[in-house]
Amino acid sequence: MKTIQKMHIPSTSQSLIQWRDALKQDVTNLESLLFQKGILTQINDPAFVKKSELIVMGKSFSCEELSALLTLLNEQGIDSIMLCSPEEIAGVSTIRLLLNAFPTSLKKRLDEFSKSSALDFALMESFPDWSQPGLVLMDMDSTTIQIECIDEIARLYGVGEQVSAVTALAMQGKLDFNESLRTRVGKLENMPLSIMDEVADNMPLMPGLQTLIAGLKKAGWKVAIASGGFNYFADRLKQDHGFDFTIANTLEVADGALTGKVVGEIVNADVKARTLIELAKQYDIPMTQTIAIGDGANDLVMMAASAMGIAIHAKPIVQEQAAISLNSLDLEGALAILSANSSTNWS
Description:
The protein is an alpha/beta fold. The chain has helices at residues 13-37, 63-75, 106-115, 149-157, 160-171, 177-186, 193-200, 209-218, 231-241, 269-282, 300-305, 316-321, 332-340; strands at residues 52-58, 81-83, 87-89, 92-99, 120-124, 135-138, 222-230, 245-254, 257-263, 290-294, 308-312, 324-326.
């Protein structure tokens, strides 16, 4: 089989047509490889029984990487595959595979494989149905936006190192979240609200966020934030970017400054999971159509409660336990997973 160079998705429509034509040729070579390995099944083959689905994603990919992937799948006992033609979804090269097995060790092997490539993988028995209404519940800090807001305001207030050290341990699951939050907020006593405004005005969005929200809205899905951070920032994101709902912690304010206390129930891991269930009921969405996206240990409970948990650039414990981990891609990867699931363009 001839060597195929990595293909980067172009921006112009004419170049995109050329890219798709080249990608179709790669599919031809990929099919040849599959036939050589004896694992490509024909459409409507009555002997084929789907046990799992695998979505392969990357900004670019090559037949060499796919060849290595297919060898891995074959070694895991998968001997029959249905291949969907590659697509470009939200700037992401995407291939969907139906597999005739779902080995328990496959996710771990794919996670290892992704570390040596620029590919991300989504492996599940079945995915939420993109053609039906659904709900995506997202963490805020380091998920919806690229920063931890409490670390940023603490830095501007001059207590950054003291607060960020506690944040890191909390996100790794090494500290009780409620107590760690109270400890960090306590160090912000007398901080003027002007610092909150400065951070809120300059929150760097996670790449792909606006693309994801637009795609979800177009498909009739709801998108919300459940954050262990602060509603001061979550409400701004709702206002500016069209989230359907947000919940986060409330900081006590007196005379234009923080008192160093949190008001009301703390939004921890259990509250996030409860919010997912309550919103699904409120919007009349079955739990099979729910997705949770996060990066920290306090997101694991809502991920487990959802039909599909997605870890994005997450802490090691989260990558290990989440159903899907995005390490190379950003939030556009979540849209690619959902959109690819609707594809029926089989090779």
